[in-house]
Amino acid sequence: MSDVIATEMQAAFAPLVEMRDIRKAFGGIHAVEGVSVNLYPGEVVAVLGHNGAGKSTLMKMLAGAYPIDSGEIRVQGQLARIHNPADAQALGIETIYQTLALADNLDAVANLFLGREKLTPWRTLDDHLMEVEARKVFNRLNKNFTNIRVPVRRLSGGQRQVVAISRALYFNARTLVMDEPCAALGPEETRMVGDLVRQLKSDGVGIFLISHDMQEVFALSDRLAVMKNGRLVGTYRTADVTEDEVLGMIILGKRPEGKVQAQRPGA
């Protein structure tokens, strides 16, 4: 029994994702050079840097949009072969892009199951089952989200985020990449997305957060990883650094003096 408990405890404290010495070049341009970063259950790691710093390329390799040139990705300790987005999804990795990739003419239920519809034994769409299942997952994230049968183009930005996140969660995502989730949202909708992120954390989901909004980064992230010119400047506990120190890393590539890097939450 002690061995079983030890194994379970080890799994609980193991990273969801480890990216080790990842490299990617496009022609002669080195977009990502030897970057290592990890993510633990129930943690938000903000991935920061100017446009062209390599953060989006790094996350697209995790999502299967780009193949890695060298290095390795491990998911829950196991070496992962991610050649396309389907491989990433099979490993519990989902990406929610800024554009959300929703079908505006369809309702929230149809968007949740888009491309992965539930069928009856007679191979027709099981609309009743899909609505029941959709209401469960929507209710988990936002109990006030009830207008699920109107086209999503009529939903608020915050409600559209609920649909996109619900789609990832329903299909068992354990790791989310969120690309500028609050871009173009008003204050109330931004608070809604913040609440969603905190709910996901409490459920043990790990989140890589790509953001340019320092207020959002300091409000939501546990650690932050800063990139510049394709390289990792450093990874720190968000509570250990100031906004000015983070901007110094982003703009100048300068690590804050006297601050210890953190390779895991609380470290």
Question: What would your notes on this structure say?
Answer:
- With 267 residues, the chain is of the alpha/beta class.
- It has one domain: Rossmann fold.
- The chain contains 9 helices and 10 strands.
- Helix 5 (127-141) crosses helix 6 (157-170) and helix 6 runs parallel beside helix 7.
Brief overview, please?
It contains 9 helices and 10 strands.
Write the layout of secondary structure elements.
Blueprint: H1 2-12, E1 17-26, E2 29-39, E3 44-48, H2 55-63, E4 70-75, E5 78-80, H3 85-90, E6 93-96, H4 108-112, H5 127-141, H6 157-170, E7 175-179, H7 187-202, E8 206-210, H8 214-220, E9 223-228, E10 231-237, H9 243-252
Parallel strand pairs: 3-8, 3-9, 6-7, 7-8
Antiparallel strand pairs: 1-2, 1-4, 4-5, 9-10
Helix pairs in contact: 5-6, 6-7
List keywords for this structure.
267 residues; alpha/beta; Rossmann fold; six-stranded mixed β-sheet; four-stranded antiparallel β-sheet; 9 helices; 23% strand; globular
Distance between the termini: 29 Å
Question: What's the CATH class, please?
Answer: Alpha Beta
CATH topology: Rossmann fold
Low-confidence stretches: 4-9
Number-wise, the strands total 10
Main sheet strand line-up? 6-7-8-3-9-10
Radius of gyration: 19 Å
What count of structural domains? Answer: 1
Count, helices: 9
- Spell out the CATH superfamily: P-loop containing nucleotide triphosphate hydrolases
Structural class assignment: alpha/beta
What share of the residues does DSSP label as strand, in percent? 15-25%
Report the order of strands and helices.
Answer: HEEEHEEHEHHHEHEHEEH
The second-level CATH architecture is 3-Layer(aba) Sandwich
What helical percentage do the residues reach? 25-40%
Shape: globular
Mean pLDDT: 88
| Main β sheet profile | 6 strands, mixed
